[in-house]
Amino acid sequence: MVRPSQRKEMAQEVVASRGISIRLACSAFQVSETCYRNQPVLSSENEAIADWLIRLTESDTDWGFGLCFDYLRNVKGLTWNHKRVYRIYCELALNIQDQAQKAIEAQQTRAIERAPPPEPSLVNGFYA
Fold first, then answer.
1. How far apart are CA 14 and CA 27, in angstroms?
2. Domain boundaries in the chain?
3. Mean pLDDT of the 11-15 span
4. Better-predicted residue by pLDDT, 63 or 33
5. What is the DSSP secondary structure assignment for residue 117, as one 8-state letter?
């Protein structure tokens, strides 16, 4: 499956190399002309967002997206859209949870649950 951004790039390449019209290239690759002409903006801000997210998750490893976004919004006063920040958060693969840590925690709780009960002790011939 080809992503829309890849289809746009293919259409741009065909227009540049073969000299066909934009309209024909867009219809061939099923890309709207608006999408073809749209220029991505604020890529430098995306890098700044990624930098902030990496710094926050390295210093506080237990912070998820919600805490990171709230910190950026409320403490730093940055007014980025939460959908945009979350998209970058996922692109950096910060939303993938550490499965090894969860497995260790699960083993520890199972070991505690399986602990044998204390044996009764004899006190003056009776069980206490």
1. 12
2. 4-37, 43-95
3. 93
4. 33
5. P
